[in-house]
Amino acid sequence: MHDAFVKQGVQVLSMSTDSVFVHKMWVDHELSKMVTAGTVPFPMLSDAAGRVGGIYGVYDRDAGVDVRGRFLIDPDGVVQGFEVLSPPVGRNVGETLRQIQAFQLVRASGGTQATPSGWRPGKPVLTPGPALVGRVWSQWQVGLAKDD
After folding, report:
1. What domain range is 136 assigned to?
2. Are residue 42 and residue 89 in the same domain, yes or no?
3. Distance CA 127, CA 138 (A)
4. What is the pLDDT of residues 107-133, one digit of tens each?
């Protein structure tokens, strides 16, 4: 889904405690089995000492690894969203893209709009304010389809 992220103006980075050599071996031996391009379209960074993972609270000192996490950082360098999962559970890339689109819409509106749970581009948004208090559910239902 890298092209979809680029279309949104997003720079994707991956980072792990693996060395650059392990990253290369992964690309050469594992990635080629998954995609035909044989390359990763975004930078794979090495955090061998766990310094960056420690800053973001995902470094497990006992195991010497970063646990799975993703961080949505806006153009001002502010973390707008994050998700940290234990290693046996994978992340949902489609949900990450949806959240980025929602954060971008809210940012572009200057905070005059908000997105309800499950919002997707093209669906109605909410206008925060006193008139919305106690009416979020009725306002949100207007934009829901059967498959939402």
Report:
1. 109-148
2. yes
3. 13
4. 999 989 999 888 999 988 988 888 878
Largest CA-CA distance found in the chain, in angstroms, rounded? 57
d(CA 131, CA 122): 23
Closest to 58 measured CA to CA, from 81, 87, 78: 87
- Which CA distances in Å does 25 have to 14, 19, 39, 121? 15, 10, 11, 38
Q: Count of domains in the chain?
A: 2
For residue 69, give the CATH number of its domain: 3.40.30.10
Split at pLDDT 50, 70, 90, the class of 1 is: confident
Using CA atoms of 91, 97, 103, 106 in order, give the dihedral in degrees to the nearest 10.
Answer: -140
DSSP annotation of 120 reads: -
Look up the pTM and report it. Answer: 0.81
If you ran DSSP here, which 8-state letter would residue 12 be given? P
